[in-house]
Amino acid sequence: MKRTKIKQLFSTTPTGQEVTVQGWVRTFRNNQFIAINDGSTIQNIQAVVDFNNTDPNILKRITTGACVSVTGELIPSPAKGQPVEVKVKQIEILGDSDPEKFPLQPKKHSLEFLREIAHLRSRTNTFGAVMRVRHAMAFAVHKFFNDRGFFYIHTPIITGSDAEGAGAMFRVTTLDPQNPPKDESGKINFKEDFFGRETNLTVSGQLEGETYALALGEIYTFGPTFRAENSNTTRHLAEFWMIEPEMAFYDIQDNMQLAQEFLQFLVRYALDNCAEDLDFLDKRAKEEEQSKPQDQRSELGLIDRLKFVADNDFQRLSYTEAIDILKNSNPNKKKKFQYLIDEWGVDLQSEHERYLVEKHFKKPVILYNYPASIKAFYMRQNEDGKTVAAMDVLFPGIGEIIGGSQREERYDRLLRRVNELGLPEKELWWYLDLRKFGSAPHAGFGLGFERLILFVTGMTNIRDVIPYPRFPGNAEF
Questions:
Q1: What stretch of H or E contains 265?
Q2: In degrees, to the nearest 5, what angle opens at C-alpha 431 toward C-alphas 406 and 245?
Q3: To which H or E segment does residue 135 belong?
Q4: Each residue of 142-155: b (16+ CB within 10 Å) or e?
Q5: Across the 477 residues of the chain, what is the mean pLDDT of every consecutive 10-residue run?
Q6: Are 341 and 320 in contact (CB under 8 A)?
Q7: What is the reported pLDDT for 214?
């Protein structure tokens, strides 16, 4: 008999119809009650076994973690909190699980422990919920852009350019690391490498995305990106997913408006389509909050926080206004910030961003017009000669969730900036070419997908919102 997903059974009126359920055993109580989960929902379905008429050898094999197939009648459940259960007629063990060795027992495990068994953590309620939300958010990203006439562009993962000018890139090579070919000066000769030049894993699809925005109008990328930064924090990964829209004929104001609409759409989509999982994660987040000191606790629960973001306009202010607020804030005056704000031009840290969002405005914030000295070469230079049309969206608990800008469309200005920063003009020839042949005002931004999932799920470590996290010293699984 074809299996029916548990999620579907919970919305089915029980009339004694015969159904087959296949999934993994969460618990088996009193040799009678099996809690089965198949991943389609956070809820387990109860299967009731007639243990007097079931082979004892089968009963012994019904252990936590085992995979089973049960066929029986779907009947109303007398147990609280579940509408239906299965009265088992036939049971088959599809995969055994040794209860002495299976590391996921029916108890609460720490997230640190679960990272050590990342191949099994998806079977917990927490990670099942997080990954279902992650799927919903990925679908919502495509829906948002598709419904607005954007085109999805696959930009390269192997690239010869460093979009950020940061230099923290993973090298891609087929050369023998023990004995690489050398040129006359003794340097590695990348002309003998697979691509005939030095190549890396991409840090961003933005530059390539711009080339298509200046042909198709509005495009977006959604793919993996890589940063070889030695950042052992709860907000950084070496491999993560980025969503990067690029839009011709947009200025910085259009860019900010799209970023707000995009984030609000995603949050609303989660609230409308992930209610069951968010309810579980909300309760989980409340338990986590109880363990924090009173002054570090969030004023809003997870679902309330999501609703607040979905229903309120974001506060917009310039970098200069933000510096004035931070300079005169109590944490700065009392020297409670780790990085004190004493002059215009400094790069804002997460503590400053979160102060603006969580303490001062108590709503999401969009900062714009940053100092040119702390931003990338491709951002449009403002007429004041010292700022660029950059913008960052800041969220509670996260800090920066989106970074973007109006792009510099003027060839002479862009070339001057490339030379000022000592960037390799010959490697950016194609990017500069865009400004020679039918250049147009355009803008775009990047959203770190995992940071979005952090916010939507209420998880506190970015390593827990991606199936297999990559970070310094760890490429397990």
A1: helix 252-273
A2: 45
A3: helix 125-147
A4: eebbeeeebeebeb
A5: 95 95 97 97 97 95 98 94 95 97 92 96 97 98 98 95 71 95 94 94 95 98 94 89 98 98 98 98 92 78 93 96 97 96 95 94 96 96 97 92 97 96 90 96 98 96 96 92
A6: no
A7: 98
Whether the pTM exceeds 0.90: the reply is yes
Give the Cα separation of 402 and 392 in Å (integer): 6
What's residue 1's pLDDT?
76
Task: Please name the residues in contact with 286: beta carbons below 8 A apart, sequence gap of 6 or more.
Answer: 301, 302
CA 268, 131, 3, 108 torsion-angle sign: negative
Residue 319 φ/ψ, nearest 5 degrees: -55, -45
Residue 323 neighbours by CB distance under 10 Å: 20
Q: Which of 380-383's residues contact partners 24+ apart within 8 Å by CB, and which partners?
A: 380/252, 380/405, 380/406, 380/407, 380/408, 380/409, 381/408, 381/413, 381/417
Start-end of H helices in 312-421: 319-327, 330-333, 350-354, 411-420
Do the strands 45-48 and 84-95 form a parallel or antiparallel pair, or are they unpaired?
A: parallel
Classify each residue of 34-51 as buried b or exposed e, where b means 16 or more C-beta atoms within 10 Å of its C-beta.
bbbbbebbbbbbbbbbeb
**Residue 163 confidence (pLDDT):** 61
> Nearest to residue 209, comparing CAs of 248, 171, 176?
248
